[in-house]
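Write out this protein's structure.
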Amino acid sequence: MRRRMLALAAAGAVGGAAALAVVSGLLGSDTSADAAPEATATATVARRDLVQRSTVPGTLGYGDARAVVNYRRAIFTGLADEGRVLRPGAALYRVNEKPVILLAGRQPAWRPLAAGVGEGHDVLQLEQNLLVLGYDAERELTIDTRFDASTAAAVRRWQEAVGLEPTGRVELGDVVFLAGSRRVGTLAVSLGDRARPGAPVMVTSSIERLVSAEIDAGDQQDVAVGDRVTIDLRTGTTTTGTITEVGKVASVAGAEAGGGQLTSGSAISTITFEVRPDTPAVAGGLDQAPVEVGITSERARNALSVPVSALLALRGGRYGVEVVRAGTTSVVEVTPGLYSDGGYVEIERGAVTAGDVVVVPA
């Protein structure tokens, strides 16, 4: 359907060439090469890979957004600034001047950590951080899943350095495990607010730029992991990117409830996909900025093709090209196929072959 709709647009593109359609009633007849319009040039019929793109709206932001939840009671006395990038070991926020520290790890903190706790991956994450942050100068710490005396000693050194009471015990809420360096997003609280256990404090994300976009579920075949896309930042800058993830479950938007049911005709089913920009620096500090994502909607490989401007509009909605052979030109009827973004059109049928020379506007 896209191909037929684009054929209408292509008719406009060949409007200039349509001035040559005076030969449309002479389809197949030869004319003298000297009779050709002066402002013309030629192009060679060749086989090319053609791509047609469509655009969908997207949002440029950062990946892996996660909420940070508070486990302490008292007053917020410090908050990291929105937009700031924090590395493991830095304070996310402070409650009664006691810091809550960011540590690297994918498993969330879910219990106090001290001598006597059962083995677990959270202990391993803690010990890895203590080692990387430099709190095992004596090389006494064994990196495993057990919280032993050497772990407690390293914890005390860390607590003294960050301003916590050196108990050797990590309370639930003292640390937040997240994957590596994090960018502080939207704050959910303000300085002076009362800290309540279980309440969100802020949203953090990875420092990786990411575009999130949606496509109609019916066009899901147009996007796949690894596909190349274009990203228009709406600032006059365009970059490229790679699709890294495609959702497997469609979501429904725009539906109206009717007796507990979704009314037909109002629902739009979409699939979400994510794109990693090739040159994130071009986006600067933009966050949650609207963009346009150009995806490949159709492709024709090794297609016989000519420049779109070579098409002539013939009577009856038909098309042709003016072929130069043996010093003369003749108009040959052709059936256009895919119109590519690169200014070429596929020739599905017609008495032309690769290597033929056709007339195009100069």
